[in-house]
Specification:
elongated; mainly alpha
Length: 194
């Protein structure tokens, strides 16, 4: 599928690229006004190109260069921003560009659904000495946490994280099942017999 899309872009855009929004997304997450939770709402108007006749591919390269220039000039700020974006991966709410889309009700629902899952996830990590992590749990935890570091290169959003929350649910469900088995030996015996 990726090869087909790259071939399509070669034909349509004249360059074998996967995407032409990587540069602007990188700039949204790494520029003067970027915040750990601003995402696409970051004001990047100061970086508007003087040449308005750039192709999509050229514009993407231009924005990418602007982002890398910012990172090189402000290494300390870029590192701090990156660390905060990693932590923001675990946030239950986003600062939205369209304020009309923000909702206290939605934020409350996310807090009361994601919050306990995240708490149980961290308890699982703390409890790993007493209840050894299985290989599959290690894999799911690594996948879940590593995506925080990957997405923080650009910017983190709840909607980017949601598909990965399924991994979190599996880890928490496995943990709860193991705890139930420890507390109720009969349940553990039934599970082992299956």
């Amino acid at each position: 599928m990726v090869g087909i899309w790259v071939a399509r872009n070669e034909r349509a855009l004249g360059a074998p690229v996967l995407t032409t929004n990587g540069g602007i997304t990188l700039l949204h997450g790494n520029s003067e006004k970027a915040g750990y939770n601003t995402g696409a709402s970051t004001d990047i108007s100061a970086y508007a190109p003087k040449d308005t006749d750039l192709s999509e591919v050229q514009l993407d390269a231009y924005y990418r260069k602007q982002a890398f220039d910012f990172i090189r000039r402000h290494k300390g700020r870029a590192i701090r921003l990156y660390a905060l974006k990693v932590l923001n991966w675990f946030n239950y709410r986003d600062d939205l560009a369209q304020k009309s889309e923000a909702s206290g009700t939605k934020d409350s629902i996310m807090l009361f659904t994601y919050g306990p899952l995240l708490l149980m996830f961290f308890l699982r990590l703390l409890y790993s000495r007493r209840l050894r992590l299985s290989r599959i749990e290690v894999l799911l935890i690594v996948l879940y946490v590593s995506n925080a570091f990957a997405y923080a290169i650009w910017h983190t959003r709840v909607r980017y994280r949601l598909p990965y929350d399924l991994l979190l649910i599996v880890v928490v469900a496995t943990f709860v099942g193991n705890l139930a088995g420890q507390w109720h030996p009969r349940l553990l015996a039934e599970r082992q017999s299956q």
